Amino acid sequence: MSWLVGDALGAGGHLAWTSPTPVIAAAVAGAVLAWGVAWWTGRRGGQAAPGLRLAELVLWALALSVLAVAVSGPSWVQEQGREEPGKVVVLVDDSASMGVREGAGPRGDAVARILAELGADDADVFTFDDDLHLGPPAGWDGRGTDVGMALSAVADRYLGQKLQGVVLITDGLDRGALRRGLQAESEAGRPLEDAVPALPGPLTVYQVGAASDLYDVAIDEVVTGGFAFLRTDFTLTAKVRGPPGLKVPVSLSREGHHLQDLDLSLDAEGRGEVSFTVRPTRVGRFAYELSVPVDDRDAVPGNNVYPVVIRVVRDRTRVLQVSGSPSFDEKFLRLFLKEDPSVDLVSFFILRTHEDMGAGWGSDELSLIAFPYERLFTEELSTFDLVILQNFDYKPYFDFSANELLGNLAAYVRDGGALVMTGGDRSFDLGDYGGTSLADVLPVTLNVAGPRTDPTPFRPVLSAAGKVHPVTRMGATPEESEAIWSRLPEQDGYNRVSGLAPDSAALLSHPSATQGGAPEPILAVREVGKGRSMALMVDASWRWSFSEAAEGRGNQAYLHFWKNSLRWLVADPEDQRVVVTPARENVLLGDDVRIVLRVRDAGYLPVEGAKVSGTVLLPSGATQPFEVQTDAAGEGGFDLHSTEQGAHRVLAESPGVPGKAETVFAVSDRDPELVEIIPDGAFLQRLAAAYGDRGSYRAPGEGGAPLLDPTAGRRVMDRSETALSSVPLVGLLFGLLSSLAWLLRRRAGAR
Q1: Rounded Cα–Cα distance for residues 556 and 110 (Å)
Q2: Which of 243, 306, 310 is nearest to 272 (CA)?
Q3: What is the pLDDT of residue 14?
Q4: What is the rounded distance in angstroms from the CA atom of residue 655 to the CA atom of residue 361?
Q5: pLDDT digits over 392-428, tens only?
Q6: CATH 3.40.50.2300 is held by the domain 317-569
Q7: Nearest to 16 by CA among 717, 722, 733, 729
Q8: Quick one: which of 168, 106, 95 has its CA closest to 131?
């Protein structure tokens, strides 16, 4: 008859109520109310014997109690513990280095054999890279292998348990801190166990992969300074690894153009270095690529090429200063340039004229050298970064070669050179530069109508562009710059011009004089082709030095102005009005790289809504056009998905803005996880040794059973619940008791 109470009931259990407390309370209250109703209605029945009436009420009480108990959800709960053997946990390294080819297949092929020998069906198998994942490996594409993390994660996951064993299957190329820590402890002679996480079971390490089975020729590293100096040799040193004694040809190219080959013989350890010498001729960023041939047996072809982006900068700015006569302005500027260690100055001021040379004097009777204008403005012009014409009248010296020499100077500016012309009685229209080819590259127009100079003293004022332009930025804010310029001394006159040339900006203006309704420019700048020019219509900027010194501020205003001017005139490509910059210079194949473009007007204010279009030149020769529009900050950008290895050069331009912006970035297939691919057995042996007799190391192909702890186990609690409200006895009791109570009620004459 055990079926009446559910034959799962047994000794050692306990009763539990599963219904919520409000439900239990409602059931009890309902039973009491129902019993009260039965008592009240029974009084209105016939004259039954007291014993019969009492029996009825007792039966109703018992029946309603059974119903209330059933609604309260009684359960019979039994718990019983049992012992189970401890688990075996298997950790499999699924990083990319496990997929390198060794012989006929990837080194990770050995993992399946090891798992089969372990009987991994009964084990908890995890894969790991820089995180832990449940289940066997699906491929070898993990990054950032961290053995210490994996071991610590196992200790946390099985906290309080005693494992039979922990199995680690890896090539030992740990990218975390554990490998470095064990090596440091070993070299220092300190105990290794302090550097490893505590484990809940013995550790067995299975190494997969062996250096003897690996054929790989790779460029491990290219050593550069990160940047190079213009017209100065620099070296790129490639560190090559491969089979010992192998002779390897190493090639150097720049953005697809082959430059040089050198042969390298690897030493007995399979390593060697080779250095290339390069002399850059332009400033900017350039992508160089060093490579070694790819053999059919090569385990990782991606590491046979090593791209590197080099930024070429100026070591010293080479300046040619030509002055028509000695003056304070010439003296101060020459002194400033000579004392700047970043400037290589060639300075001429004219004391020996054509009259001296045509007066019949012999060369040995003249102590002054002749002005070598022909050589300077033909052969050597391209060697200078900046030419300063300081109150210089070309006519007495250039003779019949004036058109050619001034044309050379104009072409020099358009090709990327820089030019400054300052005021004086031999400059601008007073030097008859109007109508010459040089006038076409100045930021002002000549052939002024009326007087060519104005001797009235005045103090220049900053224009809106001058408040933010790098040349006239004296302070941290536009307001601070304006305050500094406002306290500088007056100038004693200026050279008048007809106005601004196209695409030019006035940075300093006359406070009252106008030309065509606009203030007359005193300092103007312009970008012409790839170069820049500046016109300063006064010849007494040296006064800015004396004035500041008299007020106890030194000569900082004068120095700041000319330093700013020098930097802007010979600026790097990043200081153009249209600038293009990649978010990263070295990109992994398949990654996206953000290309940022910035547009500024002639006064270097951001241009909102400017359209910038251009082309990305891919290594294969294909092109990818783009077009963006700038925001309120004058910036725009797009994401480029890299699909080809090699140098990617980006060219950009904006309508109405002179010049083209360009930059370069390199894309490679050099997965960081594959930079080092030779298995590190020494690390794995140290790791096993750190656990003493609870650690064991298996060499590649060795196999064998793992180290297990036979005493490991765990107590498992089995819990069973039987819902008493649903057993047949409850229904039978309620039905029997309520039927008897009703029968007695009828016999008593009640309804």
Answers
A1: 72
A2: 243
A3: 74
A4: 58
A5: 888 877 766 788 888 999 999 998 899 999 999 889 9
A6: no
A7: 722
A8: 95
Phi, psi values for residue 162, rounded to 5°: -115, 110
> Cβ distance 225 to 211 under 8 Å?
no
pLDDT at position 57 is: 74
User: Model pTM?
Assistant: 0.58
Written as six digits, the tokens of 110 are 């050995």
Torsion of CA 78, 79, 84, 90, to 10 degrees: 110
Rounded to 5 degrees, φ, ψ at 644 are -130, 145
Q: What is the pLDDT of residue 487?
A: 85
Residue 237 phi, psi (nearest 5): -110, 120
Task: Answer yes or no: are the C-beta atoms of 301 and 285 closer than 8 Å.
Answer: no
| 478 membership: H or E segment, kind and range | helix 478-486
3-class SS of residue 214: coil
- Give the phi and the psi of residue 345 in degrees, each rounded to 5: -100, 135
Alpha-carbon distance 313 to 505, whole Å? 27
Residue with tokens 């050379």: 408
The architecture that CATH gives domain 574-672 is: Sandwich (2.60)
Asked if the domains 87-202+681-711 and 215-309 are classified in one and the same CATH topology, the answer is no
> How far is residue 187's CA from residue 175's CA, in Å, rounded to a whole number?
19
pLDDT at res. 574: 61
What is the C-alpha to C-alpha distance for residues 264 and 253, in angstroms, rounded to an integer? 17
pLDDT value at residue 413:
92
Rounded to the nearest 10 degrees, what angle do helices 178-188 and 147-157 cross at? 100
The domain limits of the chain are: 2-81+719-747, 87-202+681-711, 215-309, 317-569, 574-672
pLDDT of residue 46: 54
Rounded to 5 degrees, φ, ψ at 248 are -120, 125
pLDDT of residue 452: 92
Instruction: Return the bridge partners of 504, or none.
Output: 526
Query: Encoding tokens for residue 243?
Result: 């089979």
Please give the Cα distance from 659 to 529 (Å, whole number): 5
Report the Cα 507 to chain-centroid distance in Å.
37
Secondary structure (3-state) at 544? helix
- Name the amino acid, one letter, at 245: G
Residues of the chain with pLDDT under 50: 1-4, 352-369, 549-550
Could you tell me how far CA 125 lies from the centroid of its own chain? 35
Question: What CATH topology corresponds to 87-202+681-711?
Answer: Rossmann fold (3.40.50)
Q: Where are the alpha helices (DSSP H) in 224-349?
A: 328-339
> Phi, psi (5° rounding) for residue 57?
-65, -35
Of 3.30.230.10, 1.10.1760.20, 3.40.50.960, 2.60.40.10, the CATH number of 215-309 is 2.60.40.10
Q: How crowded is residue 230: how many other Cβ atoms within 10 Å of its Cβ?
A: 19
Tokens 């030097």 sit at which residue? 431
Helix ranges, 570-692 (H):
681-690
**Paired residues of 606 in beta bridges:** 600
Helix, strand or coil for residue 672? helix
Q: Six-digit token pair at 147?
A: 């053995």
DSSP states of 369-403: PP--HHHHTTTSGGG-SEEEEES---HHHHGGGHH
In the prediction, which pLDDT does 362 show?
A: 44
Residues 682-707 pLDDT 10s: 999 999 999 999 999 999 988 888 99
